[in-house]
């Protein structure tokens, strides 16, 4: 198990982005996910240094994309990285109980929820919560490209977390929580931070 201690969330972010570069280059440090090599990580309990809110898309696995092992990331995954009560409380748990200072909101190229929201009617009985959250970006900004919507939606996620949670807002404003918007390009494998 890697013993990782970061003085700042910025150091943790740089470490993860370097892990993504190793993933792209085919030179990951975490190569063996067998039980024997991870047993110590499992027994020691979790001490993650980053929370990642990402899409449930089977191509978007933060642990692999960032070249991390067990116990390093606290991942919360939902279709389209949409935010409902359980997602919000899971992130609050990471912030308040686990004291994680880095929160990455990870969108991605070719997201099925973004595509579906492009053509779904505004009032829809199917996937109502997913579509409503994404369509707010589509209609407010007048966008018609699902990859652009996916990037813009990251700001909606950040705003929603800060507005809906006093725990997250307080940590962000007073306790050094860094919230980062990032985007995974499926064609290149690269994760870019979006300002």
Account of the 3D structure:
The protein has about 200 residues and is α/β, with parallel strands linked by helices. Helices cover about 45% and strands about 15% of the residues. The chain has a five-stranded mixed sheet, sandwiched between helices. Strand 1 (about 50-55), helix 3 (about 60-65) and strand 2 (about 75-80) form a beta-alpha-beta unit. Helix 5 packs across helix 6 (about 130-140) and helix 7 (about 145-165) crosses helix 8. The longest helix has 19 residues, at about 145-165. The chain is globular. The model has no long low-confidence stretch (mean pLDDT about 90).
Question: How are the strands of the largest sheet arranged?
Answer: 2-1-3-4-5
SSE order, one letter for each helix or strand: HHEHEHEHHHHEE
Radius of gyration: 17 Å
What integer is the average pLDDT? 89
**Helix count from the secondary structure assignment:** 8
Structural class: alpha/beta
Helix percent reads 40-55%
SSE topology:
Blueprint: H1 9-25, H2 35-43, E1 50-55, H3 62-65, E2 73-78, H4 85-96, E3 102-108, H5 112-119, H6 128-141, H7 146-164, H8 166-174, E4 178-184, E5 191-194
Parallel strand pairs: 1-2, 1-3, 3-4
Antiparallel strand pairs: 4-5
Helix pairs in contact: 5-6, 5-7, 6-7, 7-8
